[in-house]
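Hey L., structure's done. Input below.
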Amino acid sequence: MQTAPIRWTYTGGTDPLCGTGASPAERLLAYGMASLFMGLILLFDHHREVPVAEGWRIFLLAFFAFDIAGGAVANMLNSCKRFYHNDLQPGEGLSARLAKTPMLFTAIHVHPIITAYFLGGSLLNAVVWYILLLASVALVLVLPLYLRRAVATGLTVLALFGNQYLLPLGAGLEWFIPCLFIKMVLGHAVQEEPYRAG
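Output:
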């Protein structure tokens, strides 16, 4: 069995994206995967044929691809687990307080509604997904720690099925709900032991 030391303490400037004190490898992984996912989503999103005058739609899609698909990886980093599930440290401001309050952090993720409205998805389905996201995170947070990861995984798998067969967000957005649930329900809401780098 492989073992690694667990470390809950961290130092450095506040980094709610990769987690304060993220190692160079963790930063590279988070930003590298976010960039890769953004590129792939833009590459495969050729059906939109967006006029140049509406290029802001491409920017919006790129932003959410980077944030949501990239966040699915970033929120699994040990540095993020250490940062999110720790007490507020001296000198940490509003962004840290927000990131360390899972329900509030989830509540500001109105991304499905914005995406559906501006990129041509189902607004009704987006509202339902937003409510389901809040309910899923709330459920995970009231469970004992030893059940959270398994329940979060189950809820994320249900979201995969629901997005595919019951409540599609919209054409070209098939990736969005699964990545959002991985980022918020499976990643952000689940406290896990943060292994130390090296």
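The first helix runs from residue 24 to 44. The chain has a mean pLDDT of 92.

-- N.
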